Amino acid sequence: MSTDLQTHLGAFGRRLERRRPPLCPELELWLLGDSVDLESGCEELADGEAPPFWAFCWGSGQALARYILDHPERVRGRHVVDLGTGSGIVALAAARAGASEVIALDLDPQSRCAARRNAELNGLELQTAFRTPARWDLMLAADVLYETGLRNWVFGEARQRGPILLADPLRTGTPRVDLPELAHIPSLTFPDVDSPQKNVVLYEIPRRSR
């Protein structure tokens, strides 16, 4: 049992379970059970306490992970960064698909811990970081467009250093991406606390040619 993570669940529960996300059953994660209530849990959080978003496998992450597992040629032998890794599902998929190096990037130290624990659970290797490395071949980003500053950074980073594979759950109020769709994948968050979001669109943001 990953007891070091369980101490940071706060109002969301006392224990994590070993679970296999429906879209990626070949991977196992430490996640909350189905009885968790995201809205109530957030209301009960202490002031300044961060929700344990890493204890959910979000639909956009599942969809991007599934795409990577089905298209291993996109990451095989490449240095890959997973932006906003959360549970680490996308980073784990890249490692399983044969990436030469995977860095799970997240500002939340508990998320980085979750990614490491989930990698151990699956017998996979990855690194964690809170800053973007100086060098990478491919960036993976799921559900990161809801913050204007981060959205602008992602597109700027892609144009300069890309490419970036992007998964967008089409949240209400989030500007749409003006790029051809790479894939459209029905996907739910697991456990399902994000019910209005049932579909994920994948895009590739190419590097600007010089």
Précis, in short:
By secondary structure, the chain is α/β, with parallel strands linked by helices. The protein is 28% helix and 19% strand.
3D architecture notes:
The protein is an alpha/beta fold and 210 residues long. It has a single domain, classed as Rossmann fold. It contains six helices and nine strands, in the order H-E-E-H-H-E-H-E-H-E-E-H-E-E-E. The chain has a seven-stranded mixed sheet with strand order 5-4-3-6-7-9-8. The longest helix has 14 residues, at 148-161. It is globular, with a radius of gyration of 16 Å.
Supply the key terms.
19% strand, globular, 6 helices, two-stranded antiparallel sheet, 9 strands, Rossmann fold, 210 residues, alpha/beta
H and E order: HEEHHEHEHEEHEEE
Sequence of strands across the biggest β-sheet: 5-4-3-6-7-9-8
- Annotated CATH architecture: 3-Layer(aba) Sandwich
| Highest-level CATH class | Alpha Beta
Which range best describes the helical content: under 10%, 10-25%, 25-40%, 40-55%, 55-70% or over 70%? 25-40%
* Tally of structural domains: 1
CATH superfamily: Vaccinia Virus protein VP39
Distance between the termini: 50 Å
Total count of strands: 9
| Average pLDDT rating | 89
Poorly predicted residue ranges: none
What structural class do you assign from the helix and strand content? alpha/beta
Sheet-strand content, in percent, reads 15-25%
Q: Classify the fold: give the CATH topology.
A: Rossmann fold
Mind describing the biggest β-sheet? 7 strands, mixed
Number of helices: 6
Q: Return Rg in Å.
A: 16 Å
Note the overall shape: globular
